[in-house]
Design goal:
The chain has strands spanning 2-6, 10-11, 17-24, 32-38, 45-51, 54-57, 65-70, 75-80, 89-94, 100-101, 114-118. The protein has no helices and eleven strands. The mean pLDDT is 93. By secondary structure, the protein is mainly β.
């Protein structure tokens, strides 16, 4: 399984970004996909997950972030609007369903992440 995240960059508060996660070796349409983020000195946390047609969000991003999936292209997206400085961090996608803090070792596959900086 390979996961390649992209789309992160530096933006001003209130701005928007769209992250992409390209996958190989894993069919997201059959299982969970989630976006996680990790700020320096903090635990990695799931912020959005999708399983088949159902999506769930952490309270901190609810109403601002949208997770979606293009099964044909094996890509998972995270649309992030109304960004806040506290949204800054490294963002990862993973074949997982959990929200909130996770033990990094409890997830089988991680990509290299994409950096989001909101100022």
């Amino acid at each position: 399984v390979q996961l390649v995240e992209s789309g992160g960059e530096s933006v001003q508060a209130g701005g928007s970004l769209r992250l992409s996660c390209d996958t190989s070796g894993y069919t997201f349409s059959r299982g969970c996909a989630a976006w996680f983020r990790q700020a320096p000195g903090k635990e990695r946390e799931g912020v959005a997950s999708i399983y088949r047609g159902n999506s769930n969000y952490a309270d901190s991003v609810k109403g601002r972030f949208t997770i979606s999936r293009d099964s044909a292209k094996k890509t998972v997206f995270l649309q992030m609007n109304s960004l806040k400085p506290e949204d800054s961090g490294m963002y990862y996608c993973a074949p997982d369903c959990r929200l909130g803090a996770v033990n990094v070792n409890s997830v089988a596959y991680w990509g290299q992440g994409t950096q989001v900086t909101v100022s």
